[in-house]
Amino acid sequence: MLIKKIENLASSILSELNIKTAPVDIKAIAKHKGATIKPYDLGERISGMLFVKDSDGIISYNPTESQVRQRFTIAHELGHFLLHKKTQDVFVDKQFQVHFRDENSATGQDIQELEANAFAAAILMPKELLMTEIKKHNFDLGDESAMKELAKLFNVSLQAMTFRMVNLGFFSLR
Ligand SMILES: [Zn+2]
């Protein structure tokens, strides 16, 4: 699926729920889309899982990980649920990277991971909402403390926010 379509899917869900402020309530969104969310001790190497049964989804996340990681995991699993539930019933995610790997070297499964990450980034850090907050706080994106503030506002990791900003073309890494 094209990144553009994933962005559109995320923004249509946000408008369905009339979400206009950060941080985005990812658990409420997942529930709204038919997924049950539960913390589950997955062992330290596993961040999250998705089970698909009929058309329902059960998302498990690792409660021992940081809150920002838990939020990203739930968003990532919701991405699998919305985009890939027809392809398989069980998704297991090891401690994945939040950045986008090179799509040219990606296998079929990697592409699903890229898509789930793209969905997570789009739903947790919606472009319109980012632009609103940047303007409101008059953030200078070249300033690391501003990036940290922005990450805090959206309740995501600094790394996730940095990659989102780069992917949106808001700034480039030197
Ligand atoms: Zn995944």
Biggest sheet: strands, sense, closure? 4 strands, mixed
CATH architecture tag: Orthogonal Bundle
Low-pLDDT parts are none
Question: Would you give the CATH topology?
Answer: Arc Repressor Mutant, subunit A
Q: Based on DSSP secondary structure assignment, what is the total number of beta strands?
A: 4
CATH class bucket: Mainly Alpha
Q: Layout of helices and strands, plus pairs?
A:
Layout: H1 3-16, H2 26-32, E1 35-39, E2 46-53, E3 56-61, H3 67-84, E4 90-94, H4 108-124, H5 127-137, H6 144-154, H7 158-167
Parallel strand pairs: 1-3
Antiparallel strand pairs: 2-3, 2-4
Zinc ion is lined by residues 76, 80, 91, 93, 113, 116.
Gist of the model:
The protein has helices at residues 3-16, 26-32, 67-84, 108-124, 127-137, 144-154, 158-167, and strands at 35-39, 46-53, 56-61, 90-94. It has 174 residues and is of the alpha+beta class.
Molecular structure report:
The chain has a 4-stranded mixed beta sheet with strand order 1-3-2-4. Strand 2 (46-53) and strand 3 form a beta hairpin. It is globular and about 45 Å long. The longest helix has 18 residues, at 67-84. It has helices at residues 3-16, 26-32, 67-84, 108-124, 127-137, 144-154, 158-167, and strands at 35-39, 46-53, 56-61, 90-94. The chain has one domain: Arc Repressor Mutant, subunit A, CATH 1.10.10.2910. It is 51% helix and 14% strand. The chain binds zinc ion. Zinc ion is lined by residues 76, 80, 91, 93, 113, 116. Residues 76, 80, 91, 93, 113, 116 line the site of zinc ion.
